[in-house]
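User: Watch each token:
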Amino acid sequence: MTNANITECIAKNYDLWKSVVLNLIHALVGVMPKAVRGITLNFDGETIQLTMFFEDQPRERDIEDMQDVEAELISHHDYQSDLIISVIPSSESLIDKVGNWGWVYLRRED
């Protein structure tokens, strides 16, 4: 997905995107695990898909925290949500995994 495509997808639902991103960032404060490499959003008009990429298999506590983050996120909207937790080792690139609403978080990996 190109930056132009992401910008176009965001523009179609800008107010919703802005609200989702702000609520997501607020929900992540104090619970963001160190093992998260990136968080991206995808929206198909009905479902807000939240994909979290971990470098290793997440701990049970991390999964529960991310489920709480999703619950907090959807409590502010009338849309369905889908939380996807994916494990991709840091030896593999995430850049091509971006959703149509872009990255909310992308860890710098030197």
Remarks:
- The helical segments are 3-12, 14-28, 60-74.
- The longest helix spans residues 14-28.
- The beta strands are 36-43, 47-54, 80-87, 103-106.
